[in-house]
Amino acid sequence: MSRELLINPELMARLLKDFIADEVKKVGFSKAVIGLSGGIDPTTAAYLAVNSLGPEVDGIQGESEDHHLSASTSDSIPLYATDRGKGFWRVNVQA
Known about the structure:
By secondary structure, this protein is α/β, with parallel strands linked by helices. It has helices spanning 9-26, 40-53, 71-76, and strands spanning 32-35, 57-63, 87-92. A 3-stranded parallel beta sheet has the order 1-2-3, covered by helices on one side. Helix 1 (9-26) packs across helix 2. The N and C termini lie far apart (51 Å). The model has no long low-confidence stretch (mean pLDDT 76).
């Protein structure tokens, strides 16, 4: 037996946007830096942060010899910022 998941996406998006903005302000910040690995979780977090804080979000991706992203993943990471985000950097994190 399958059960249908009932969710209001517009309401959830508004709640998450408000939550992020409130939590960032609560700790005294107005900007955010999001670490991006190319996975769905950090990409979703970056998308939500940009929608909540606008251009006050920067993205950073660490690369090392042991951690390489596929070309399609690596190329798509900065796309979250093209609409409203502010910056994106790739940083070599060799130990």
